[in-house]
Amino acid sequence: MLNKQRFENMKKIFKYAMVGLLGCVTLSSCLESALETSPTDSMSGTGLLANANAALVPLNSIYRSMYASWSPSANTHQSFGISSYTLMADLMGEDMIQTAQGSGWFWFDCLYNVKSRYTSTAWRSYDVWNCYYTWISNANYILAAESTMEGEKADVNYVIGQAYAIRAYSYFMLAQTFARTYKGHESEPCCPIYTEPTVAGTQGNPRSTVQEVYDQLNSDIDKAIELLNGTERKHISHINYATALGLKARIALVMEDWNTAKAAAKEAITASQCTVLPVENFAGLNNSSAANVMWGAEIISDQSTMYASFFSHMDADGSGYANSGAYKEISKTLYNQMSTADTRRAWWDPTDERNGDYGYMQNKFRFSDTQTWTGDYIWMRVEEMYLTAAEAECRLGEEAEAIKDLTSVMSKRVDGYTCNKTGAALGKLTTDVTGSLLEEIITQRRIELWGEIGRIYDIRRLKQGFVRTTEMGWPVATLLTNRPSNDPESYMWVLTIPQTEFDGNINMDPIKDQNPVGDTK
């Protein structure tokens, strides 16, 4: 039986209260009030899920938790939803350097020193597992009302479609975190699948295989795309038709399904109506209303999580943790791969006196207002879709189209950019140079999306190893000496499952089902 504590944690998102629904004059106020929650055991089919308009309250509650600091209480300053896990994954790679331990947040992710702490509810294993299953649990309550929810068809589709997308995204990220990458590991254990509402005492499910999880999440994202097509987005934080296609493209890249990745990315570009912007037009990456943003979170002053926020850890000129010396910097190796004419060089500063012997200080992510600790979170930009299409086309041998899509981004970064490279060879290590077109696309992806999508996820799917060196700017303590970061088959970056799951799930065996605590099986 699943224990009560786990599901009390997993059901924080809903607020079962009809009062105040009409008082939410803006989405932001709805999101804020909706985070004040009670267990979903009390959710009634005749309550908030009875009609599509009312169902926006629990739906908005899920989105609010994607940029709030709430899980778990002992770890909230590095656990603030989507952006915290992106930062975690970036610091697990080689392109983003953390120069010092500082207050300790994210340092242990950077060192790969969290897996042994799976018995604690204050560390990553519990945090990540709990967060994504929370979103799944609450999405399942919304989906359970699919056949009974009243309202205009488009309004019902809008709510239900987003719930499918949230569930798909959550399973995708669980698979990215708690199993090896999809291709070549389809039959390996992944995570339990739940598609029905769960309550304290619900019998837990066993781990499904990687293939089974991907089958489920693909079914979900396809359903989301179908339902969201033709609906009108109410807020940038909502997953709309274009964003769902963007998620489909991300999934397809991991699955090495190049045709699907290409098609989804291309349609996402068209449907989003977003445009690639020059660097100066979205400085600070803190404005979700920018014309290149497909999905993000608008952070208003009374919803700022202050120290427990993305910009607190990134903006060294703010009042947050980055200012305490735990700087986030780009590796010198990656920086030097930019043309001297590349306008993205403005995102980092090689002359900053705080660089020391490390990498180069970042200016890419800045508070929009340091006094109110505000700055919007950007979760998907249209530039990613062009680079995804370019990679897929290159893999398919459609090199002219790949260069065209690559140039759609690069022409706004380097005046007169041209590319005459060919081929799809990648090095065994990310530092190995082949000179191929595919390598050029991946390199520009690394630079363009630095800090935005989680570098380790790309390293995993590309099946490359990586190294860190002091020449790149990495501190000696972070070099991962005697760790198999050069082995793409390593379990080094597969997180352990929290002990609470084994304590509450009769179908999970802590001996047979736990992921390796070490780097190898």
General description of the model:
Mean pLDDT is 91; it is low at 9-45. The chain has a domain at 4-276 and 490-504: Serine Threonine Protein Phosphatase 5, Tetratricopeptide repeat (Alpha Horseshoe), CATH 1.25.40. By secondary structure, the chain is mainly alpha-helical. The chain has helices at residues 4-10, 27-34, 52-65, 82-91, 107-110, 124-143, 153-178, 210-228, 241-255, 258-272, 310-314, 332-335, 382-395, 399-410, 437-448, 455-462, 499-504; strands spanning 96-98, 293-297, 328-330, 348-349, 360-362, 377-381.
Quick description:
It holds the Pfam family SusD-like_3. The chain has 521 residues and is mostly helical. It has a domain at 4-276 and 490-504: Serine Threonine Protein Phosphatase 5, Tetratricopeptide repeat (Alpha Horseshoe).
